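Per reviewer request, we include the raw input and output of the structure prediction for the construct analysed in the revised manuscript.
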Amino acid sequence: MSLQQTDIELMKIQVEVLFTQDENGCLQCIKEPTGNVESAPRFFFGCTNEGSICKFRHDLPDNVIAQLKEVAAAEPMLVNPEKIPKNHRQFEDILQSHTPIERVWVGPAYCFPEHIAPPTNVIQLSREDAGLLKGDLANIRSELNSSHPCLAIIEDSQVVSICRSVRTSMRAHEAGVETLAYYRRRGYATSVVAAWALAIRALNLIPLYSTSWDNVASQGVARRLGLVQYGVDYHVT
């Protein structure tokens, strides 16, 4: 898989990674690593400096979609990467008039730089390592049954930081990273994400990383790795 993708193409790829879609390209469900079924947001809007894409859940009425498309067409190019879409209030008013809004989510979407320094303190986990996942990470044990790379740091006979593929498509995987509270602020998350990205590239796939504007720690990982922001995700449920 080529590393050279435009920002708008990366945003399209990320939609494939995050959600299942029907034959018409309408959103159905969020791709959960646990296999749980969770409905996709009613509206997804991905902004880049090359334009934007919008997606709608399969059960959204045509008249609501038409209104959202009209507002989306007036949305300016992404100039300030640290922003919510300019017309977000109009999007939310339209969706609120249809059904009360449950959740609004917004944050940066990143790709990885061409060069990623390989860390030396990370191992790849297999099913046989499930017993090393303890405490708040024990719920990840079932994910070791998949073929997706799980990269981890081991200390004190347990996994203390882990990065694995939590959303996948035929072209790309998106990272999910967790670190036990006692072991944070040691650079472990940066190491496991770097190792995971290299493992994904070894599969000839594109590694992606996204977070919310509220998650300062996650943005710090992106900054330390030199990740390149290609857009902003905004979705409303």
